[in-house]
Every structure is written in C-alpha cells, then in structure tokens.
Automatic annotation (TrEMBL):
Source organism phylogeny: Eukaryota, Viridiplantae, Streptophyta, Embryophyta, Tracheophyta
Organism: Brassica cretica
Catalytic activity: a thioglucoside + H2O = a sugar + a thiol
Pfam families cross-referenced by the UniProt entry: Glyco_hydro_1
Keyword set, alphabetical order: Vacuole
Location in or out of the cell: Vacuole
Keyword Acetylation listed: no
Keyword set includes Zinc: no
The protein's name: thioglucosidase
Length: 164
C-alpha cells in the first residue's frame, strides 16, 4: 500500500468547476505534499525532498495544460506550505514546508531542495517537461512515493516512510 499522486485528478477537477460553474476564476488556496518525520532524519535527508519537488512540478505542469488546452481561468496557486508547522492531527511529525524547520535547534530554517527548485523555476523562463508522475502515468501505473509502512503508536492510522 502506498500514497498515490494523481495530478490528472486536478485537471479533472478544474474542468468540472469550469463546466459546472460557468467558467469562474479559480484560485487554488492550498496544495501540498506531506512527509513523515519521526525524528530520525539527518538534516541532509530532511532537506532532500525530491518527491515534493516532483509533486509541485507535476501540478504546475497540469495547471498549465488546463489553462492552455481548455481555457480554464486559473488565477492563483498557493503551495502548502512555506515552512513546516504544527498539524492538528499529527503535531510536528508531518512536514509540508518548502523550508525545513529544526524544532530541536532554536527553530532554524533550512531551504529544502523543492524550495530551491521552485525559486529557480519562478526566476527563469524555463518550461516544464515531463515529470516523474507523468512518465509513470503514461506507462500505465501510478508511482508510489512511500514503500515502508509503519504503525505510529500515537495514531491508529498507518504511516509511510519515503523511499526517494
């Protein structure tokens, strides 16, 4: 069992909103990917978040297609979140940030690889090409980002550890 990322679902949702609600302006207020941090990662491991970079890249790519191919009136996209924060259900174990916050070292902030990529992408004229998720979808299966399953004693739900 693993977490599946399906950016085409965003395309379907944008098209549904366009058709069902007479083509309104759309703002995506919160979109992001979490990862488990049970306190065992080194700083290098915590800031190398390839999966999040590919998540963001794939969603930007699919939003561009929705705008170009279907004239979806998407006016804003906000990534969740700038920095790691407290999540109500999981506390500080779930990390969403483009910046890693070291809760054990005076809240020092470290830019993750996804934040660095996004900053460079936004400063450039680079166009997006196929990303990790799109390549797998064309092969007929969805990629898994997490292969290791473990049970968190503080929560009845299963958790996943990244293999990327």
């Amino acid at each position: 069992m693993g977490i599946v990322i399906y950016p085409a679902g965003l395309m379907n949702l944008l098209r549904h909103i366009q058709d069902e609600y007479k083509n309104p302006e759309i703002y995506i207020m919160e979109n992001g990917m979490d990862e488990i941090d049970n306190g065992t990662k080194t700083l290098a491991e915590a800031t190398n978040d390839y999966g999040r970079k590919e998540f963001i890249k794939s969603h930007i790519l699919i939003m561009g297609k929705a705008i170009r191919l279907h004239n979806v009136r998407l006016k804003g996209y906000f990534i969740w979140s700038l920095m790691d924060n407290f999540e109500w259900e999981r506390g500080y174990k779930m990390r969403f940030g483009l910046y890693y916050v070291d809760f054990n070292d005076n809240l020092k902030r470290h830019m993750r690889s996804s934040g660095k990529w996004l900053s460079e992408f936004l400063d450039s004229k680079e166009s997006l090409h196929k990303c990790y998720f799109e390549g797998h979808r064309e092969k007929g299966y969805a990629p898994k980002l997490f292969d290791t399953e473990y049970l968190d004693p503080d929560n009845w739900r299963l958790s996943y550890a990244s293999d990327i």
